[in-house]
Specification:
Largest sheet: 9 strands, mixed
Order of helices and strands: EHEEHEHEHEHHEEEHHEEH
Strand content: 15-25%
Shape: globular
Helix content: 25-40%
Distance between the termini: 37 Å
Structural class: alpha/beta
Number of strands: 11
Strand order of the largest sheet: 3-2-1-4-5-6-7-8-9
Oligomer: single chain
Amino acid sequence: MKKVATIAGSDATGGGGLEADLKTFQEFGTFGLAAITSIVTLDPETGNHHLKKLPIEWIQEQIASIFAGPIDAIKTGLLPSEEIIYLVTEQLPENIPLLVDPVIGGKGTKDFIQNEQVQALQKVLLPQALITTPNLREAGILAELGDLTSEKQMQQAAKKIALLGVNHVVIKGGARFDDKQTLDLHYDGRNFYRYPHPVIATPYNHGAGCTFAAAITAAIAKNYPIEQAIKLAIAFVQAAITLGEKINPYVGHVWHGAYTHGEKRLEYTDEQ
């Protein structure tokens, strides 16, 4: 069985973060390991999110535990301090595919990381990555281009991010350009690959970005070619959004089991 590691924040409500990663790894038939960098909680009175960073020595011990045995692919998520980014970069083994999901904020939250952390991502972590999966806002920040408002600007951002040393840049389009069709864009350093797909009209999409990155990571661990891994991840997340659920009065999450178990759930619902 392929072993896949995530170094990320914990989302106590279960939709994003390392909870999303581990659920997705399981759905892909891989074995997930995790190091927690931080804990994101939700205030049940207000719906506000709060971030608590873990002590650096706790993170270091978890990372050492992960790499006590062989690992087939690694994903990073929320790394909420410059010190944590440098620690993770120093501890990463060589020659293992690395996907960096450059989490800067989350749905309904203030930014989790600020300018120094962004600079650390650019300087030390992204140059080690095989793939990075920013959303439009994150891509604009990493490329230092501000808000991206067109496909041409997505391409410009992808090129600038690739110059940091990452081999493959996959920018998630979301529904910011068009409320009917979204566009994911992959740049491999030479060519662009477009992935348009319909916007799913639901507010229950918390965790979609983490899940997308985790799906690519698991597919890469299983030796899928990168283009096939991206296509499979898109299909996986589209299913997860389609069968998303309201979890509490403030947020609704994607359902990570939808791609594999969705038809069974729909059959059960129809019978009721």
